[in-house]
C-alpha cells in the first residue's frame, strides 16, 4: 500500500517541462498523421516538379541553364542504375531509383539549407522529411516491395528457391535478412540526418558566427552521400532479386 502511494506521488510530480517527439497531428477519420512531415515532403516534391517542368518546357538542341543541369542529373542517375542492375535490366528501374535519390537528396539538403525551425506551426517545428523515422521507414519499405516485385516478376514462384540456396539450412538467415534490409536502410538515413541537424543546431546556438559553417558544408556532403548510399543499395537489392543462377556463377 505504501508503494502505491509513493508511485502516485511520483506520477503527480513533473520532472521536466520538455516533451520529446511532439508532433503536429492531422486527424483524417480514425487516422492520425504527422502534418509537419507532409508539409515539408510536399515542398520537396514541389521543388522537383518545378525543376522538371522548367527543364523540359523549352528543350534546346544545345542545352544550357537548368536543362543542362537536369540532363547531367539524368545521366548521373542512368549511370547509377546501370552500374547496379546492368545494361539489360536498368531501364525499367531507372525511374524508381532516380526518384528515391532525388527525393532523399533534396530532402536532406532542405534540412541543411532552409531554416525550417524559424517557421512556427502549432505544437511542433518543421524539419527535413528524412529527419522523421516514418519517412525513412516508408522509403525502406517501398524498396523492399520493389525488390520482392522484381524477383517475382522475373522468376515467379521460383524466387522462393533463393531462400534455400545453396543449402536449406540458410532459410532462417535469409528470412531474417529480408527484415534487416529495410531496418538498416531506414535507421542509417534517419540517424545520420538527425545527428547532423542536431550538431549544427547546437553549434549555431553556442557559436552563432563562422565556426558552424565548415560543419554545415560537411553536412551537405554527407547528406548527398546518404542519398547515394540509399539509392545504390536499393539498386543492389533489386539486382540481387532478379539475378539468375547463370549470372551468379559468372560473378563467382
TrEMBL record:
Gene3D superfamilies tied to this protein: ATP synthase, F0 complex, subunit A
GO cellular component terms, semicolon-separated: plasma membrane-derived thylakoid membrane; proton-transporting ATP synthase complex
Coiled-coil spans in chain: none
GO molecular function: proton-transporting ATP synthase activity, rotational mechanism
Topology of this chain in the membrane: Multi-pass membrane protein
Subcellular location: Cell membrane; Cellular thylakoid membrane; Membrane
Keyword Flavoprotein annotated: no
Pfam short name (any one): ATP-synt_A
Domain of life: Bacteria
Record-linked InterPro entries: ATP_syn_F0_a_bact/chloroplast (IPR045082), ATP_synth_F0_asu (IPR000568), ATP_synth_F0_asu_AS (IPR023011), F0_ATP_A_sf (IPR035908)
CDD domains cross-referenced by the UniProt entry: ATP-synt_Fo_a_6
TM regions (residue ranges): 33-55, 93-113, 133-152, 189-211, 217-238
Record keywords: ATP synthesis, CF(0), Hydrogen ion transport, Ion transport, Membrane, Thylakoid, Transmembrane, Transmembrane helix, Transport
Record's function text: Key component of the proton channel; it plays a direct role in the translocation of protons across the membrane.
Record family assignment: Belongs to the ATPase A chain family.
Complex and partners: F-type ATPases have 2 components, CF(1) - the catalytic core - and CF(0) - the membrane proton channel. CF(1) has five subunits: alpha(3), beta(3), gamma(1), delta(1), epsilon(1). CF(0) has four main subunits: a, b, b' and c.
Name of the protein in its database record: ATP synthase subunit a
Name of encoding gene: atpB
Amino acid at each position: 500500500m505504501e508503494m502505491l502511494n509513493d508511485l502516485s506521488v511520483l506520477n503527480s510530480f513533473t520532472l521536466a517541462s520538455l516533451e520529446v517527439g511532439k508532433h503536429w497531428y492531422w486527424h483524417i477519420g480514425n487516422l492520425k498523421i504527422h502534418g509537419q512531415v507532409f508539409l515539408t515532403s510536399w515542398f520537396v516534391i514541389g521543388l522537383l516538379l518545378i525543376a522538371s517542368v522548367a527543364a523540359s518546357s523549352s528543350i534546346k538542341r544545345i542545352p544550357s541553364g537548368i536543362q543542362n543541369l537536369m540532363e547531367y542529373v539524368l545521366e548521373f542517375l542512368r549511370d547509377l542504375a546501370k552500374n547496379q542492375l546492368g545494361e539489360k535490366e536498368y531501364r525499367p528501374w531507372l525511374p524508381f531509383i532516380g526518384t528515391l535519390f532525388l527525393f532523399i537528396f533534396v530532402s536532406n539538403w532542405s534540412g541543411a539549407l532552409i531554416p525550417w525551425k524559424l517557421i512556427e506551426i502549432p505544437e511542433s517545428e518543421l524539419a527535413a522529411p528524412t529527419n522523421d523515422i516514418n519517412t525513412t521507414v516508408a522509403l525502406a519499405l517501398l524498396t523492399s516491395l520493389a525488390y520482392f516485385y522484381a524477383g517475382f516478376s522475373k522468376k515467379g514462384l521460383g524466387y522462393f528457391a533463393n531462400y534455400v540456396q545453396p543449402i536449406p539450412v540458410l532459410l532462417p538467415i535469409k528470412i531474417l535478412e529480408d527484415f534487416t534490409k529495410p531496418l538498416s536502410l531506414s535507421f542509417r538515413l534517419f540517424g545520420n540526418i538527425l545527428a547532423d541537424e542536431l550538431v549544427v543546431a547546437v553549434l549555431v546556438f553556442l557559436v552563432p558566427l563562422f565556426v558552424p559553417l565548415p560543419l554545415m558544408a560537411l553536412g551537405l556532403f554527407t547528406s548527398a552521400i546518404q542519398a547515394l548510399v540509399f539509392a545504390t543499395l536499393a539498386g543492389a537489392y533489386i539486382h540481387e532479386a532478379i539475378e539468375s543462377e547463370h549470372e551468379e556463377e559468372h560473378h563467382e
